[in-house]
Amino acid sequence: MQAWFRRILCAALLAVAAQAAASAPSLLIAVEDDWPPYSARGADGAPQGLAPQLAREAFRRQGVLVSFVLVPFARCLMLARVGRVAGCLSATVTDDNRGQFWWHPTPMFTEELAIFSLAAADAELNLRDLAGRRVGITQGYTYPSVFMRDAKIMKSVAHSDDDLIRMLLARRVDYILMNTRPGQLRIRGNPAAAGRVHKTGSVSLDGFWLAFSKARPKGRENAAKFEAGLSAMRRDGSYERLLEAFQPLP
Q: Which runs of E-coded beta strand occur in 118-197?
């Protein structure tokens, strides 16, 4: 084959590939920027963590390209609610938000909502033990409805999980609620908290979903595609391999 012909052929193939990529469906998804190891802003500014990897791979199997915008979680939900993005990673389903979004049937992963305190002897607390106590929570996060509606629990709201830890260290609250693995990572990375802040109980074990906007067209269809992509990953073992890579705490 002549060199000039090979160059023409390669250029044509590249043009066809570029046209196919350009014509592929694409979705913009909001993702929380500060929830490692599930989602966070990397050193290069790009999203990293389990949630965006799952979303990207599940949609790839359905021929859908995904791009992300990194935002605080409260804004993530707002953008999906008003239709500025196709969906928000990663939300729990509660009585309060169940009708606000389209949900795929199977959660992406599960994570414990834990109780943390300064007293290690308080181990094995549960929701009932929080009545009459000052409990710190993070603004905009999706907590179980039974917890949020319990008027006996005195709730103090912080802007972030890091602020929650500072509130606890200052004894402005008796307990704080954080997801177990993200909370433990923050505690280990905070010299003032390491060895002082302990997991002392559990509120719930929650699933996490990609919440699809009802304000955009094809939201229900996109949820179905995402479910199909996750199912394909489970069948070929790639889902389990991806989860295993995130199991050990550093």
A: 134-138, 154-158, 175-179
Helix (H, G, I), strand (E, B) or coil at 119: coil
**What is the predicted pLDDT for the residue at 4?**
43
CA distance 160 to 139: 7
**pLDDT at residue 248 tops 60:** no
- Domain spanning 111-206: CATH 3.40.190.10: yes
User: Which sign, positive or negative, has the C-alpha torsion 117, 94, 220, 83?
Assistant: negative
Of the candidates 94, 83, 63, 108, the one whose C-alpha atom is nearest the C-alpha of residue 208 is 108
How many other C-beta atoms can be found within 10 angstroms of the C-beta atom of residue 60?
15
| pLDDT average, residue stretch 17-41 | 77
Q: How far from the centroid of its chain's Cα atoms is residue 46's Cα? A: 15
Q: Is 132 left (phi over 0), alpha (psi -120 to 50) or beta?
A: left
Homologous superfamily in CATH for domain 21-109+207-244: Periplasmic binding protein-like II (3.40.190.10)
Report domain extents, the chain. 21-109+207-244, 111-206
pTM to 2 decimal places: 0.85
For 228, the enclosing helix (H) or strand (E) is helix 219-236
